[in-house]
Amino acid sequence: MKPVDAPQPPHPAPRRRRWLMVLIMLGLLLCGGLLGSAVTLVVVAKRVQTVLQHPEEIPRLAAARLRRHLELTEDQTRQLEAILSRHQERVRQIRERFRPRIVERFDELRLEVDELLNPQQQDKWHNWLELQRRLWLPPVSPTSSQPDQ
């Protein structure tokens, strides 16, 4: 008769495999964090750009956000949006008053930096500066001009 072999307990995974698994999991966690951060950055940048390009939307967006935050009624929300719109118009008027000076500063900046650059660099610089100008100086809104109060 042959002796019966006693069942052997399963062998624990070698330490090297555990470390590899831990490293893979940490790598996945890091990649997920980086991807989430990148997506958040893109979404926030798009929202900021939209608001800069369409400042007339600010009162509506702010009123909607404050409605939830302050638990406003429909009537309060409408009144708040009207108040915000009125003040937004005043801010727009102030912006328009100073717009020529800002444009002038952009032009001076362009000329001063042009002196440092070769023609190829100047082309890239002009494209970049124009993008910044469009971002920070949105088109003039056709809202009626009313005197400052």
What secondary-structure arrangement, pairings included, does this model have?
Elements: H1 15-53, H2 58-70, H3 74-114, H4 119-136
Helix pairs in contact: 2-3, 3-4
Kindly describe this structure.
With 149 residues, the protein is an all-alpha fold. It has a domain at 47-136. Helices cover 74% and strands 0% of the residues. It has four helices and no strands. The longest helix is centred in the middle third of the chain and has 41 residues, at 74-114. The protein is flat and about 100 Å long. The model is unreliable at 144-149 (pLDDT under 50).
What's the tally of helices? Answer: 4
Roughly what percent helix? over 70%
The radius of gyration over CA amounts to 30 Å
Indicate the low-confidence ranges by residue numbers. Answer: 144-149
In whole angstroms, the N-to-C terminal distance is 110 Å
Q: Count the beta strands.
A: 0
Mean pLDDT: 84
Percent of residues in β-strands? under 5%
Structural class: mainly alpha
Q: In sequence order, what are the helices and strands, one letter per element?
A: HHHH
The main sheet comes to: none
Give the overall shape. Answer: flat
Give the key terms.
single chain, 149 residues, 4 helices, 74% helix, flat
Report a brief summary of the structure:
By secondary structure, the chain is an all-alpha fold. It has a domain at 47-136.
